[in-house]
Amino acid sequence: MSPNVALIGLGNMGTPMSRRLVDAGSSVRGYDLVPEARERLRDGGGTPADTAPEAAREATAVILMLPNSDVVDAVADELLEAGAIGEGTLVVDMSSSEPARTRVLAERLADAGVAFADAPVSGGVRGAERGSLTIMLGARDADRERAHALLAPLGRVVDCGDVGAGHAIKALNNLLSATHLWATSEAIEAGRRFGLDPEVMLSVFNGSSGKSGSTENKWPNFILPETFDSGFGLRLMLKDMRIATNLAAQVGMPSRLGEDAVDLWAEAAEGLASDADHTRVAEWIAARASP
Ligand code: NAD
């Protein structure tokens, strides 16, 4: 029998993920605050619900793909209070959430007999569409196999450790990614002003030690063509960077470079539209440099 999956949060990532799950044979019921997002679910073969508890009530697994830990906690409370999840349900938080809060949430759910795993992703909207996400799984041993089976249609599942491990690795990855993007954008703007061709620079960086996801993907696909449509919001990136620098400080390894990067990205976030794509920082950096 095909698994019954509830997917709460049908935004840039949740929508293509719901389609992958439907295509893999799951019956998907979903909920999002935004009515258009619920309609997109119907177009992709899923069934929209009017509330999160209604989406979750019949499900054996509930996937959360929400903006942050505040929303994840609120939705989990709503599901528990409505009795929509209980003994036998597996809740998987695929949002990029705060690892310390994830562990608290997992305990709270365990008290109600609900199993929990964190499984944040990287690979962006394209990865979600293609089922090629990297999925960072944090789970108790007893829940690991079930989580692997559920998540396999979405990408490559990497076992990261116990509950919270996935969210910790995800935040640290994005701190690196954001730092790379800022540094790459400064280097390319400096080279451009010296008279270098950005495409030639990228070609050299990609064959050299300056290579990163920014030189291989973000610059050639979203920044050089000036589409700025990676589908990952700048404010979501800044949230992840703060999760990572807080984690680093808590364990006694404060990230000096990371904290500077947070300040720089926060400045850009103040100057750009609230829904700006994160790749817009490149434009921001070029515009703010002296003429
Ligand atoms: P998004 O803003 O496009 O989608 C989030 C969705 O959650 C929105 O549609 C919103 O209406 C919905 N929502 C908010 N509160 C809700 C509630 N109480 N109940 C139901 N729905 C609610 O964000 P996204 O880009 O899809 O990202 C989702 C998560 O995945 C974030 O944690 C983000 O950091 C992470 N992430 C995003 C990307 C990316 O490339 N976009 C990549 C990796 C990880």
From TrEMBL:
Q: Which sites are catalytic?
A: K170
Task: Give any single GO term for biological process.
Answer: organic acid catabolic process
The record's similarity note reads: Belongs to the HIBADH-related family.
Query: Residue ranges of the 3-hydroxyisobutyrate dehydrogenase-like NAD-binding domain?
Result: 164-284
What GO molecular function annotations does the UniProt record carry, in alphabetical order? NAD binding; NADP binding; oxidoreductase activity, acting on the CH-OH group of donors, NAD or NADP as acceptor
Q: Which Pfam families match?
A: NAD_binding_11, NAD_binding_2
Q: Where do the 6-phosphogluconate dehydrogenase NADP-binding domain residues begin and end?
A: 4-160
Record keywords, A-Z:
NAD, Oxidoreductase
Name listed for the protein in its UniProt record:
3-hydroxyisobutyrate dehydrogenase
